[in-house]
């Protein structure tokens, strides 16, 4: 067997990667060369005027759209048209087992196989239906289309501004490595079996990861309210209501804890508003400042921190200190209030006006206890008290100051114990989360390794008795040419028959035939007609 190592075996002809050496018995072919001998094996969807959202119905024939095409998976996003409408668009029909390829969007070419239970269906615009020849494995074809090498080849042909487009001709000309027909099925079956096992493992890891995220929220809340301790004795505690906010039901607190408003235990301020006019003034100090993107759920993302020019008095007023809690003012509604504690990792750093800063007064609580609460139970409070505009939600500083927060006993050692207990339990949760992330990274690496082995011809044994791919492609080409010749002959025969039928319907008139005699008064006339009298004019 002669192959390139790794992905080199999938290097496409004429690409910047050079011509890859294929395994013995394999050959290159354009996707269009692998189509079936049907009359319309490759088609895109109808124009929008023939199929638009206004044509959708509650039931009937399925409309396969870009939303249905995942990267190797069919997504069950449903839309229907009436069966009468479907009958007028059957040239765009997609059958179970057909490939559907996205020609618009991200990560092109995305593709999937139409499932067996799809029922009557057609493709919409920007979706290409491809019906492979009977001797080409659709499973193998799908894996080839969504392989990294094919996507790199397609990237050179992408067009469009904003959303990338790979036209019908670009899809037809995609280079595909073709093994012998029997080997295609062996590889596809082996890949399906191994990838299915990987997907089951991956699914379990993702479920575990989601459960651990919920567990982390629970631990943060329990630590922030004191109930994480074994002798907590949780109980519902009252708080004076405020007509300006909706508090809802607050969680129970450990014995000795109480509720307070954020403004009672912390100084809450907004940040700086960027003034583009002052950004070129050399007199002003250029300092780092945090934006909404830096404030994530229970952490600060500091890999990219912007700078801003501000007056010295603004820097003195907004300079962050160790222990300050940062919270978002705007964004998606479920992300209001997210953020974390500043740990003085960047000198002279301030924050923008879309972030609130809470600075704890007189050690009434610990920053982590406050931060854990804001990122757990307080999330529902922020959602309830936020204001939604057309695209974004926001919350005012006056409302944030009224956020109910749990306050621990004033004993400093007790506060330290609560923080240390929360840190220990969260560290265990984080180790489990990291283990899941490591497992997911391994599944991704295994998937890439499996595909590399498949495209290198090493995943399953080769059989020297298999028909070589070159012979397979020649046979497909000959079958398609013969089918097309038959269709042309059938069309010619139909056209000749039509012309003969039209000729027979016309009665020939002899060239020397005399005109019919004019009726006379002695000739009886059919009912309803009258005699035409000759007119004579004297000179």
What can you tell me about this protein's structure?
With 539 residues, the chain is of the alpha+beta class. The protein is built from 12 helices and 22 strands. The chain has helices spanning 83-87, 138-145, 148-155, 168-172, 181-224, 262-265, 312-318, 367-374, 378-385, 397-400, 412-455, 469-504, and strands spanning 27-30, 42-44, 61-64, 80-81, 99-102, 111-113, 121-123, 127-130, 175-178, 258-261, 266-269, 285-290, 295-296, 299-300, 306-310, 325-328, 330-331, 350-351, 355-360, 387-388, 393-394, 404-407. The strands form 8 sheets. The chain has a 4-stranded antiparallel sheet. It has a 3-stranded mixed sheet with strand order 4-3-7. A 3-stranded antiparallel sheet has the order 11-19-16. A hairpin with an 8-residue loop joins strand 5 (99-102) and strand 6. Helix 5 (181-224) crosses helix 8 (367-374). The radius of gyration is 37 Å and the shape is elongated. Mean pLDDT is 87; it is low at 1-19.
How do the helices and strands line up, and which of them pair or pack?
Blueprint: E1 27-30, E2 42-44, E3 61-64, E4 80-81, H1 83-87, E5 99-102, E6 111-113, E7 121-123, E8 127-130, H2 138-145, H3 148-155, H4 168-172, E9 175-178, H5 181-224, E10 258-261, H6 262-265, E11 266-269, E12 285-290, E13 295-296, E14 299-300, E15 306-310, H7 312-318, E16 325-328, E17 330-331, E18 350-351, E19 355-360, H8 367-374, H9 378-385, E20 387-388, E21 393-394, H10 397-400, E22 404-407, H11 412-455, H12 469-504
Parallel strand pairs: 3-7, 12-18
Antiparallel strand pairs: 1-9, 2-8, 3-4, 5-6, 5-8, 10-22, 11-19, 12-15, 13-14, 16-19, 17-21, 20-21
């Amino acid at each position: 067997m002669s192959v390139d190592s790794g992905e080199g075996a999938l290097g496409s002809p004429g690409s910047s990667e050079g011509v890859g050496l294929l395994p013995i018995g394999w050959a290159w072919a354009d996707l269009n060369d692998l189509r079936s001998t049907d009359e319309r094996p490759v088609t895109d969807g109808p124009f929008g005027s023939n199929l638009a959202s206004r044509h959708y119905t509650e039931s009937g024939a399925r409309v396969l759209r870009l939303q249905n095409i995942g990267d190797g998976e069919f997504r069950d996003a449903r839309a229907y048209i009436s069966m009468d409408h479907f009958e007028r668009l059957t040239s765009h029909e997609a059958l179970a087992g057909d490939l559907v390829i996205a020609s618009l969007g991200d990560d092109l070419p995305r593709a999937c196989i139409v499932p067996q239970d799809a029922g009557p269906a057609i493709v919409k615009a920007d979706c290409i239906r491809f019906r492979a020849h009977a001797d080409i494995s659709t499973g193998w074809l799908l894996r080839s289309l969504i392989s990294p090498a094919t996507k790199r080849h397609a990237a050179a042909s992408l067009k469009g501004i904003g959303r990338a487009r790979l036209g019908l001709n670009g899809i037809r000309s995609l280079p595909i490595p073709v093994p012998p027909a029997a080997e295609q099925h062996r590889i596809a079956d082996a890949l399906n079996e191994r990838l299915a096992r990987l997907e089951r493992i991956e699914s379990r890891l993702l479920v575990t990861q989601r459960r651990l995220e919920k567990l982390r929220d629970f631990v943060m809340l329990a630590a922030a309210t004191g109930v994480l301790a074994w002798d907590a004795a949780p109980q519902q505690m009252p708080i004076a209501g405020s007509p300006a906010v909706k508090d809802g039901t607050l969680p129970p607190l450990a014995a000795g804890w109480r509720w307070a408003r954020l403004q009672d235990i912390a100084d809450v301020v907004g940040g700086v508003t960027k003034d583009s006019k002052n950004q070129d003034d050399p007199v002003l100090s250029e300092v780092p400042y945090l934006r909404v993107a830096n404030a994530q759920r229970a952490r600060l993302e500091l890999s990219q921190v912007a700078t801003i020019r501000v007056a010295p008095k603004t820097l003195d007023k907004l300079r962050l200190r160790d222990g300050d809690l940062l919270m978002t003012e705007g964004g998606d509604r479920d992300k209001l209030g997210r953020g974390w504690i500043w740990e003085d990792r960047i000198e002279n750093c301030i924050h923008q006006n879309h972030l609130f800063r809470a600075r704890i007064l007189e050690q009434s609580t610990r920053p982590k206890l406050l931060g854990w609460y804001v990122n757990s139970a307080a999330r529902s409070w922020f959602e309830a008290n936020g204001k939604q505009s057309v695209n974004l939600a926001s919350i005012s500083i006056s409302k944030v100051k009224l956020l109910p927060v749990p306050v621990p006993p004033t004993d400093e050692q007790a506060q330290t114990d609560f923080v240390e207990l929360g840190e220990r339990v969260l560290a265990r949760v984080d180790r489990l989360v990291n283990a899941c992330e490591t497992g997911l990274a391994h599944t991704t690496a295994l998937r890439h390794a499996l595909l590399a082995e498949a495209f290198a011809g090493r995943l399953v044994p080769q059989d020297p008795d298999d028909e070589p791919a070159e012979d397979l492609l020649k046979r497909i080409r000959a079958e398609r040419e013969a089918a097309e010749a038959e269709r042309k002959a059938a069309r010619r025969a139909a056209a000749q028959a039509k012309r003969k039928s039209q000729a027979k319907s016309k009665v020939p008139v002899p060239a020397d035939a005399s005109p019919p005699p004019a009726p006379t008064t002695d000739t009886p006339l059919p009912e309803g007609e009258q005699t035409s009298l000759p007119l004579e004019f004297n000179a």
